[in-house]
Amino acid sequence: MIKDNPIFNKYEHESAHWKSWLGEAGYQLGTTQFPFPSEFENAKSLSYTAYKVVSEQKDSGSYYPAGLLGIGNHEEARSQFNQLFLDYLSQALDDIIRANPELEVEEHKKVIGDTVFIIHGHDNNLKTEIQLLLVRAGVRNIVLHEQPDSGRTLIDKLIQEGKKSNYAIALLSPDDTADGGNKRARQNVILEIGYFMGFLGKERIRILIKGDIEVPSDIHGILYEKYDTSGNWKLRILKELNAVGIFVDYSEILKNL
User: How confident is the model at residue 31 (pLDDT cuts 50, 70, 90)?
Assistant: First the structure.
């Protein structure tokens, strides 16, 4: 757990109420619009709980937005779910981070640090390829599932491991199939991108897109690279890391090109 964090404890305590509220607020297909709270604090608390429910349901969580919003098209439901909740979730996570007594709020650490958080889906080969690139460049990296759970919830673990990072690289790979047949990234990838937008700012996130994949409108403001087998994307990503003050050992990279 996050030690003595009053905001985290507040959201966790309120989640039981909002889980019940979400169950009562869900409607059958086509009946009415979702009754979103008008108060900002309630909207943040609700959004925290909504994504917590998705994470607790694991793979079946991708179907939760359709049932909650009463929308038959799963892709449209997921898009509206993110439009409703993602910005508020980012604000809630930012509140938790700022209230954490164990976190020293020193902005210069983000500039001179050398740790990159890798956000990924099911493409393990792509994840390994970016890890190898960073290791050869002398850049530290964090992959969430490789860190011990230590009794932490998914969101708790994301916050604690994410605060060690100074940059995030999100890998959008065609892992899931939308209702219309288009390929899309895993929902956990979109969730984690939203978190790091709030924590680091969108200028410290880079998206790597592999294949023909649908990119959610929620993240169109983040710059991206297209994956290609020639590896041209590698130097472009390293150049961006170097531009924000993360040391890159180009000599080792050039040896392996």
Answer: very low
Helix H or strand E encompassing 89 = helix 74-99
What is the model's pTM?
A: 0.60
**Residues ≥6 apart with Cβ < 8 Å to 171:** 118, 119, 120, 121, 123, 126, 127, 130, 189, 208, 210
Q: What is the DSSP string of 212-250?
A: S-BPPGGGTTS-EEE--TT-HHHHHHHHHHHHTT----H
What sign does the CA torsion over 142, 145, 199, 8 have?
negative
185, with CB counted inside 10 A (0-12, 13-18, 19+), is buried
Counting DSSP H helices and E strands in the chain, the numbers are 10, 7
Assign residue 204 a region: left if phi > 0, alpha if psi is -120 to 50, beta otherwise? alpha
pLDDT tens-digit readout, 105-137: 444 344 446 799 999 988 889 999 999 999 989
> Kind and range of the H or E element at 204?
none
SS3 208: strand
